[in-house]
Structure formats: structure tokens, C-alpha cells
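Entry 14. Structure prediction run on the chain below.
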Amino acid sequence: MKKWYGPLGFLGVGLLLALVPWLKTVFGFPTFYLIFLYFTFFWIAQASSWNMLSGYSGYFSFGQGAFFGIGVYTIATLIDKYNVSFLIGLPLGGILAALVGLGIGFVVFRLRLLKGELFALLTLAVDFVLAAVVRNSNAIDGGFGVRLGSVKPPAFLGDFTTMMYLLGLVIALLTVFVSYSIYHSRFGLGLFAIRDDEAVAEGLGVPTFRFKMTIFALSCFFIGLSGALQALQIGYITVEGIFSLRVPLFVIMMSILGGRQHWLGPVIGAVIIFTLTDTFSKASIEYLNQIIIGSFLIIMTLFLRDGIYERLKQRLWLSLAVLFIATVVMMITGLGERLISQLAYAMLITVAFLLIPDNLYHKLISPFQFLHSDEPVGVSDA
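Output returned:
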């Protein structure tokens, strides 16, 4: 029965989140929240896609922008040049990204010397090469950009904002579910073995080339798929905006800070990082945005090297209690202009709680041990 818990959990979360547009209509909360959640889904899908390859197999990629760009320009070209329905363009964006990934992977993974920093630099070079090709190709961009006209959603998807929310939700759930399934499969064990020591993995009978090709294609597919949907949200597509380093850097940051050893790490990292950046970029302290986020990253890297997830699972219930209490205090005191801002500040407080060293943490909670059911790793009754 346990093997059904995961799929049922994803189905339950999906159904609950699918009700949000209906709740918006009933309670009349601002459309902004649907837009915010769509962007959250986008970053979750992007971070989880990157982590399938780089987190599980250890092949650190800087080519996220390239495959994201393939998805964006595939659907933009199909709509702008050939008047193809976006419902057809969406999967084609993912498929083309996967095919390009397979072509690159076939060459790279055959050359066993291209590992580590060499693989990272090669994937970064792919980003630059594709940007140059798109910029100089009149059939795609030609240096002038591509402007998408208004996309008319099918009736069953509601208005444009609702459609983007629902499609973003489906893509994010599908991406995370695939990542979850790989993590709990023999395929995932093979990828972890490759990450730890590829030579040993081959000696144990792991088909390393096939596994690397498969995970690279899957990663590229979901990157391109969510990129294709993002093109509809952007509207006006430019090479400089799409093939910049912003997407790969943010995705890497989200995955590493969340914890790239586990399927849930990129989800946690994406939610926290996007919420914080969105809040600080819109607040009166906008000029401090990069300083605050940069300082946050430095502290997290120094004190939570395995990511937030590893520390969070040891302090789960107390962390949730801190998050809840901090959010309530923010709402009562009126700190933060809106609920998203209040959640962002509460997240910062919760992360600060997670940064407390284990020895100090156990001293602090010892008087309240009955509230803490999670036994620290390596501690026994003996």
C-alpha cells in the first residue's frame, strides 16, 4: 500500500490547488495571488528539472537557459510564424528541448573526460551558441524579438490568468512527481551511484551512458515545457531576456539551498527564494534587494551546506510552528503590506531558526522536549 501514498498525495495536493481559482471567484481575493502562484509553479518546475540531472547524477549543468530558450522560442515561432495553437506548441517546446539535449548528451557522455567543471562550461557554451543562432536567424528572431499576440484560452480553462495558473500547476506537479518517482526507483539508485563514483557504478553493472542520456532528456523536456508556457506569460520575447544567466543562476541557487540530494529540496528552495525576491523587489527597500538576498545566500551556504531540507526534516514540527506563529504575528502587527510579504518575513524567521547549530538547538528545546518528536540523527536511548 505504501507505494500508492505518494501518487495519492500528489493527486490530493493538485486537487486542492486546482480549487484556488474557484475560491478567488467566491471570496474575491486579488488576481495578483494567482499570478504569484503561477510564477512559483514555474520556478518549482525549473528547479526540479535541473535537479533531476545535476542533483541526482552529479553532472552540474549551466545550460538551463539554453533549453529554457528552446521551449520559449519553439512556441513563440509556431504561434507567430505559423499560427499554431499554443496547446500544440507547449509539448513541442519540451520535445524539441529533449531532442537537442539527447544530441548534446550523445557527444558529451561518450567523451568520459567531460565531467565536473568541463561539463558545466560546455553546457554554458551551448547557451551562448544558441543565443547567437537565434539572434542571427530571421526565421526565428533576427535580433528584433518576437511579439506574441493575445492568446485566447479554451473555454474550459477560464480566462488567461486562470489558464496560466492551471497549466503552471499541472506542469509543476508533473515535474515534481517525475522527480519523486525517480528518487524512489532503481533508476534513481543508479543515478546516485553515478554521482558518488561513476567508475564504481559501472563496475556494479549500472548502464551509466543510458541512464545519463535518459535523465538528461527528461530534464531538458521539463525545462523546455515550462519555458514554453512562460513564453505566453512574457508576451514579448528577446534573445537578451531569454538566454541571460538569470534563469540558470536562480535555478541552481534554489536547488542547492533547498537541498539537491532530495526531490523536495528544489521545491522548498524555489518557494523561499522566489517569495523573498518578489517581496523585496516590490518593497520600499528595493535597493537593498540584492544585498539582502546575497547575504542570505552566503549565510545559508556556510551554515546549511546540505540545504534546508536536511535540517528541516529534523526540526519539522517546530519549524512549522515557528512559521505559523511568525505569520500570525506579522498579520496582527501589520508588518508587511500584503500576505505574501508577511509570509516572506515569516520564512526568514523560520530559516533563522533552522540556522541555529544543533548543540545550541538541543539545549534550547530540552525543557520542551515533549513538543519535539523527531529524534536527532545518531542519538539513541542508550
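The two ends are 33 Å apart (CA to CA).
Filed with the rest of this week's runs.
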